């Protein structure tokens, strides 16, 4: 099926992510004009019946001026202080513009852990569903004040893709300070706009190595990763600048369109494939890779050659082939310590009756497994 920009225009539920560079000034502080222009476009879209979820960066950059800072601080505690101050300013500004149109907004702050843990993920999903039913535009950001360096997303691109999975979005729009993906850095004279990306092959030779704006964090690399995650689940992505938001939402020929590669999978499998945190690895022999990947069978102890990491039964693990390539993810049926002595063993007969016996059950059941 060929997907064009009308998929963005006609999406019933859309996730729009806007980066710090589009909402704030280079030296920090909110750019009220840009924010207002974006919020106007999104409010109008919502009033036409589209369910809009906004993932907005900008809290840290917005908090710089009130704290007397002129550039993004290096240390985490000051970044968190800036985010704490700036988030209020960001929400106040959004609330003012959206409510002028009669559209309500709701603040949702998420941590990486809220995506990794199944119970938190389901809880966040319930809240977002209810907000959308109530015709509220959720405004999501990472909960920077409690996120530590080890666990934080940092940029919001990946978070936006996970939110698109979470709410089962029909499309995702990534808004930045650059109007499209280019073949090289936009300032390089021979760089050209890439209008459509239909698969990884279209990205061969594309240079995204140079970092972005002073206030943004991820650069183009994290946007490509977010686009890859979304299109793998059947969600088309449009990447453009915040200045082009209105045109993008109207389906005009702006930016770079990433067309879906995969089809939508059930919510639990989406979480397993992209959001869940992996606690370890199980190494498969060639026969087990064939069985799991091609025939989509359960993984049995006889097909594994190694166990890495510390996990307990019910955790997510990566299933890797003998070269270390991740071929699938799944919920493991054993604790790591329990599984190590069972490597290569055949299942005992009467498994279901003697659940506590060694090698009595699959390492990962087929229903708890997603092939990548
Ligand atoms: N090939 C490329 N095409 C487009 N932009 C690129 C490319 N390589 C690097 N960039 C940079 O990525 C930046 C966007 O990333 P970032 O500053 O993190 O934005 P945001 O704050 O919107 O997340 C652009 O300003 C641009 O300078
Ligand atoms: N949560 C952070 C996002 C930081 C950031 O710079 O993100 P991005 O502009 O999306 O690369 C904030 O609100 O400041």
Automatic annotation (TrEMBL):
Family as reported in the entry's similarity comment: Belongs to the glutamate 5-kinase family.
Record EC number: 2.7.2.11
GO CC annotations on file: cytosol
Predominant place of localization: cytoplasm
Keyword annotations: Amino-acid biosynthesis, ATP-binding, Cytoplasm, Kinase, Nucleotide-binding, Proline biosynthesis, Transferase
Record: residues binding substrate: 57, 144, 156
Taxonomic lineage: Bacteria, Bacillati, Actinomycetota, Actinomycetes, Micrococcales
Gene it is expressed from: proB
Reaction(s) this enzyme catalyzes, per UniProt: L-glutamate + ATP = L-glutamyl 5-phosphate + ADP
Molecular-function GO terms, alphabetical: ATP binding; glutamate 5-kinase activity; RNA binding
Protein name, UniProt field: Glutamate 5-kinase
Pathway field: Amino-acid biosynthesis; L-proline biosynthesis; L-glutamate 5-semialdehyde from L-glutamate: step 1/2
InterPro entries in alphabetical order: AceGlu_kinase-like_sf, Asp/Glu/Uridylate_kinase, G5K_ProB, Glu/AcGlu_kinase, Glu_5kinase, Glu_5kinase/COase_Synthase, Glutamate_5-kinase_CS, PUA
Residues the record lists as binding ATP: 17, 176-177, 217-223
